Amino acid sequence: MSINDWEAFFDTHAPHYMNNSFTKNTVAEIDFVVEQLKIPAGSFILDVGCGTGRHSIELAKRGYQVTGIDISSGMLEEASKAAYEAKVVVEWIHGDAVKYTPTHSFDGVICLCEGAFGLVGKDEDPMEHDMAILNNICKALKPKAQFILTTLNAYSKIRSFTQEEVDRGIFNPVTMIENNVVEWDLPEGKKLVQLKERRYLPTELQEMFHKAGLRVENIWGGTAGKWGQRKINLDEVEIMIVATKE
Ligand SMILES: C[S@@+](CC[C@H](N)C(=O)[O-])C[C@H]1O[C@@H](n2cnc3c(N)ncnc32)[C@H](O)[C@@H]1O
Questions:
Q1: Ligand 1 pocket mutation pick from 33, 46, 50, 67 by most atoms within 8 angstroms of CB
Q2: Distant-in-sequence, close-in-space partners of 130: CB < 8 Å, separation ≥ 6
Q3: What is the pLDDT of residues 129-141, one digit of tens each?
Q4: pTM for the complete prediction?
Q5: Which of 1, 5, 6, 136 to mutate to test the pocket of ligand 1 (most atoms within 8 A of CB)?
Q6: DSSP labels, 79-117
Q7: Handedness of CA 186, 190, 193, 195 (dihedral sign)
Q8: Which of 149, 155, 141, 118 lies closest to 216, judged by CA?
């Protein structure tokens, strides 16, 4: 597997993905999403970077018409099996959220737990990558429809880096890009991953969203298992942005 190839990474990881502890709160997460979106059953929802479809399937169980897009065919294979077992129908699209052109518009869009946003390849420019995703999401939304994103929290990373890591070139404080080889403890075993990561501060996210045509309504703490209308914890892994198409 080539490093930083997220498609290949998730294809291999797919059969084990649902063994990650952060996937265990799906029902509560969808309770929260439904409460935020406030749209009736039957509405169209797009799940960007849907993975094994855990959110898409839970939404479909509640009567929503869901489309899930993901770059990994392995993840979509798991999603399709799970939808069949749950006896629900979801439209699965194998594609790159950076290049996705929606064929119809949606009443709500979700992009949760690093579904595409922030997962940058080694030759990609993080800002271009993530702006393209936001632009496509904005195009997919009906006017005044909502978008919910959970993404990595820049504060926690900034607070964890040492000057020695900056001097070694692991973190560039000018570009805010981390280039690092990290060992991930995955359900299938330990794996070395070459990370190229650009986390955004809430102030930057607000500007990026505005540029894409999305008005940020709220920014809350967003770590999986701890979603709620609460302030960001500086050391938590993820934050949540709730926005509306302008
Ligand atoms: C950590 S998983 C999150 C999956 C799901 N949203 C969840 O909460 O369980 C990240 C997913 O994003 C997908 N992904 C990464 N880059 C993508 C891209 N450019 N376009 C679409 N999907 C992408 C991966 O294949 C993977 O399934």
A1: 50
A2: 117, 118, 120, 198, 200, 208
A3: 999 999 999 999 9
A4: 0.96
A5: 6
A6: HHHHHHHHT---EEEES-TTT---SS-EEEEEE-SSSST
A7: positive
A8: 149
